[in-house]
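[audit] Reproducing an earlier prediction to check determinism. Same input, same settings, fresh worker. If the tokens differ from the archived copy the diff job will pick it up downstream; this log only records the rerun itself.
[audit] input (470 residues):
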Amino acid sequence: MRPERTYAWSLAVVLVVALVLRLAIVFHGGQFFWGDESRYLTAENAWKQWENGAGLRAGLREVMGSADHLGFKVMMLGPAWVQRHTTGSYLIPSVLVSLFSLLNIVWVWLIARRAGGSDREAFWAAAAMAGAASMFYWARHLMPYDLALCWALGCLYVAVKPLAKLRDSVLAGTLGCFAFVTYNGYWAIVACALIAHVLLAWPNRRAFLLRAAGGLAGLVGSFVVIGETVRHLLDVSLIASYRDFAETINQGEFHEGALVFFDYLWRTERGTALLWGAAIPAAAWWFRRVDHPTCRRGILWIAAIVALTGILVVGANVLEKFVVYGRLVRQVAPFCALLVGWTVARIFQDLPPLRTRECAALAVLVVCAGWSMATPLRQEFPATFHHRAMVWVDDYRKVHPELRREKFQHLHLGFIWPEADRTAQPPHEILLEHPHPLAWRPYLYEGFSRAQRDQIEGTDIRMRLILLKD
């Protein structure tokens, strides 16, 4: 089999496995665990407004009346309509979000190929992206992160196009704008993509300036069009709304930026984070041993990782302009995956595809991915635990009909915010228990301060069904 076919079939296997895993966590529950997931309901309410005769303007105001994750709310209009006219299950929009998570793996493969990488390099980049837990567990939640990342990676795909024309620069800026309005926190990856687009034209000054002008025109122009459309339809200032929304991004502590960045990656990725870290010095060792285009591609991925790290850490620790959350840190994952692909391709460049040593390396990647993804796969959320507990109570009372339903109670069956309940419980027997989702450390980097993290981790927050004793 030709090398390109070997890696094409291998990529197909990776994508199928990634899809199965994402659907598994989607159907295992977790939707609406986070308060911000309620933004999906604005799309649902827009259709209610329309169908109840309130008019188009009222429906549009539901989704476009505020700047917070505007693009996400607009994109959710489709699944919200399908949901209202079919089963009504929230699995419908959740499955869509998981498909965007899958599409981001494909984007990484496409970016590696367009940037000049071989089939081997692109396959390993996609495999590393698929093995990233930070790119995995959000697929179950109705959040805008993977949708925005999809636009951002589309921007990067256009940005690394060889011999890009002015229209490509405008398109890259437009896609970057879509990423920003879908989730405002991903402006940093958009900035890295557009800056890379401009710098890749050097030393051609004319192309350098054209790319800068085209990218800026696409970015700003698209935002102006969106803002003017909203102002014309709803008489709402999108810029003022963004300014007001930005002032609310202050949960957590500014000075923890560096701590959150590195600890989140370790707690989420584990062995995969070690592979990412090892790829940087390994790639640097190869820089003087490869041709200029290949070297420049590797430097680009490392530069993006360093730039994103600097933006987040300096913006939080030094400038105190925003708090670093886990969902912001995950922006580095695509570039880490691209660097892994670049490095592995150099290591095995003289070998036939997927022979013993390369398969052994792939097995290491799979083991690391399994280590980091095991907890999200095992997680159970309060709504699912409550349903299981109620079934358990009904079965238990069939054997013990003398027990009143009031004897059965739940502990920690909800989102624990801002502090865990330390109230002493009356004498009881534990009938059913499962770890609370917030017992998983990466979730505690979504707006919790250090004191709150310590408090939650110092408290037994297992979800429990208990039977009160007389």
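[audit] rerun output stored. Observation attached for the diff report: DSSP finds 20 helices and three strands in the chain.
[audit] end
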